[in-house]
Amino acid sequence: MASKKKRLLIFLALLVVVVAILLYVYPRHRNQQDRLLTIYGNVDIRQVQAAFDDSGRIQRLLVQEGDRVHAGQLLAELDPTRFQDAVARDAALVKAQEQVLARLLAGSRPEEIAEARAEVRANQATLHNAELLWQRQQALAAQQYVPKQSVDNAAAALKTAKANLQRSEQALALAIKGPRKEDIAQARAQLEADRAALALAQRELADTKLYAAEDGVVQDRILEPGDMVTPGVPVFSLALDNPVWVRAYLPEQALGKVRLGMSAQIYSDSFPDQSFPGWIGFISPTAEFTPKTIETTDLRTELVYRVRVYACNPQHRLRLGMPVTVQIPLTQNSPQNRSQNACAKSTGN
Question: What pLDDT is stored for residue 235 in this prediction?
Answer without folding.
Answer: 96
